[in-house]
Design a protein that fits this description.
about 120 residues, alpha+beta, Beta Polymerase, domain 2, 3 helices
């Protein structure tokens, strides 16, 4: 391996470590944020439109405009705080599994807050 390739490999590895670290911190921040909100039923984290998206499910069975304002602030906070991760937060309906699945691929998204949420899997170092 040439010296240039070795340097590039080290840079790539370092970049991946930064992304993993930011995703882990973002998950923890969002879980803490949700646990302090009585109007949040669940939070999922998963890929959506080439971003890591935080899907916030309200406790109400309809769109919660007050919560939407808080979710917009959350989205701004995570974008500004975790620069290595292209991210956003959105409110999605969760009154039924079918409506939730219109927005969240529950097979690939991780539930990071909610009744059946387990502690997130350790992000590979």
């Amino acid at each position: 391996m040439s010296m240039e390739r070795a340097i590039e490999a080290c840079k790539l590895s370092h970049s991946q470590n930064i992304v993993r670290s930011d995703i882990k911190k973002m998950m923890e921040y969002c879980r803490d944020w949700a646990s302090s909100r009585p109007d949040v039923e669940a939070v999922y984290l998963g890929p959506h439109d080439f971003k890591i998206t935080v899907f916030v499910v309200p406790k109400s069975d309809h769109f919660d405009f007050d919560l939407a304002e808080e979710v917009a602030r959350l989205s701004q906070k995570i974008r500004q705080s975790y620069l290595a991760v292209r991210s956003e937060a959105i409110e999605v309906p969760g009154d039924s599994l079918e409506s939730l699945r219109c927005f969240v691929d529950t097979d690939t998204a991780a539930m990071i807050y909610g009744k059946t949420a387990e502690p997130p899997q350790k992000v590979a170092e």
